[in-house]
Design a protein that fits this description.
By secondary structure, the chain is an alpha+beta fold. It contains five helices and 19 strands. The longest helix is centred in the N-terminal third of the chain and has 63 residues. GO terms for molecular function: calcium ion binding; calcium-dependent phospholipid binding; clathrin binding; phosphatidylserine binding; SNARE binding.
Length: 399
């Protein structure tokens, strides 16, 4: 028994001695892995810190050399190509202006914001080309006729599937107390050309014009476009003073389209009356003076009144037909519903038409309202002040 006990104890000691080296090997291995992971983490952290410092240095370098970089870009162009000499000189001049402004700022002078605003506004108001109109004029003194031919246009702005046409008006100056008063002698319209930015109309027009009337006459040509919704847009106009013409000599003109302006062809006497209790406005159409030189003894005219307020248009009203005389007397009043007085920001449009057997012809229009021209705005202000009292005033008829 004692021998058995001794053998068991020796076996236990052998097993214990055999396990001791195995467990210590694992411990050292785990420790080595931990040290390795720590070194890897420190290496990654060091790389990140170095990269961050490099980025900071690059940003500082870009800030320090930003002016030089902008100057190099201005000289070389956006795509690295050489700029034209004219643009290169302009870039140099702008750099010189920047240097001069920085020197002035160094003397404790503050920059003026109005200069920058004026520069930006000038850039926004740069004229855009409306197109070009070409035509020829020939005045025959023997026949007392003015011939207009060769109507062509190019460079017109595109509005999709648009139709182009030219409206021609012959105007004559009339001496009057109204500055710039003219009468429309004749009016024509060319044929319509579809889907073309450089239309050739191919029309010719003949105007009967006496030799003494040439000095007082002006030819007005308006280029119009119509889209698929039949909306009319006037692209621009060309005016020619016929005093420049010489008899029996053809004059070929090629002019850019200018902004369209209205012509005064008469005046109308209108009274306005404010009725705030019933929320109405009374428009009185009293008289109208026209300057049409046509034979109008057998023709009638009527007036159409349109009132719009807050982008809402009231139903228009028409006057009774009157004989077309130089002084047309209507003496009619029209009532329109209006919103509350504080919101009275309305527009009154008076259009006078001449009626033919199968059509109508616009003689002129007058516009009244708070945001109109000075005379129309003054009339509107007087109406607001004179509640329930009619205020009458003459207004020019424009076409």
């Amino acid at each position: 028994e004692e021998q058995d006990t001794i053998q068991k104890s020796s076996l236990m000691l052998d097993l214990h001695s055999s396990r001791m080296p195995f467990s210590s090997t694992w411990k050292y291995g785990i420790l080595a892995l931990a040290i390795l992971f720590l070194l890897v983490a420190l290496t990654i952290l060091t790389c990140q810190v170095c990269q961050l410092q490099k980025c900071n240095r690059t940003r500082k370098k870009k800030r320090c050399h930003s002016r030089g970089w902008v100057r190099m870009k201005a000289v070389n162009g956006i795509w690295g190509k050489k700029m034209p000499p004219l643009l290169h000189d302009a870039a140099k001049q702008s750099n010189a202006d920047i240097k001069a402004s920085t020197l002035m700022l160094g003397r404790n002078e503050e920059p003026r914001t109005e200069d920058f605003s004026s520069t930006s506004s000038d850039l926004e108001l740069l004229p855009r080309s409306r197109g070009t109109l070409k035509f020829s004029l020939l005045y025959s003194r023997e026949r007392c006729e003015l011939l207009l031919t060769g109507l062509e246009a190019w460079g017109l702005p595109s509005r999709g599937c648009a139709e182009s046409a030219v409206r021609v008006r012959l105007l004559r100056h009339i001496p009057s107390h109204i500055p710039g008063l003219q009468c429309m002698v004749q009016e024509w319209k060319s044929r319509v050309v579809k889907n073309c930015c450089s239309p050739a109309f191919g029309d010719h027009f003949v105007f009967s014009l006496q030799d003494a009337e040439v000095e007082k006459s002006t030819l007005k040509l308006e280029v119009q476009q119509f889209d698929k919704y039949s909306r009319n847009a006037v692209l621009g106009e060309v005016r020619v003073t016929l005093s420049e013409l010489k008899a029996s000599q053809s004059l070929v003109l090629c002019k850019e389209l200018q902004k369209t302006t209205k012509d005064i062809v008469g005046e109308v006497l209108v009274s306005l009356k404010c009725l705030p209790i019933s929320q109405r406005i009374e428009v009185g159409l009293l008289k109208a003076k026209t300057t049409s030189p046509r034979n109008t003894a057998e023709k009638n005219v009527y007036a159409r009144i349109d009132v719009s307020c807050r982008r809402h248009r009231e139903k228009h009203q028409k006057s009774r037909p009157r004989a077309h005389t130089p002084l047309i007397i209507f003496n009619e009043t029209f009532l329109f519903h209006m919103p509350e007085p504080p919101a009275w920001d309305c527009t009154v449009l008076i259009s006078i038409y001449e009626m033919d057997s199968d059509s109508r012809h616009l003689i002129g229009q007058a516009t009244l309202g708070k945001r109109r021209a000075s005379e129309a705005a003054d009339h509107w202000g007087l109406m607001i002040k004179s509640i329930q009292q009619p205020v009458a005033k003459w207004h020019p008829l424009l076409i």
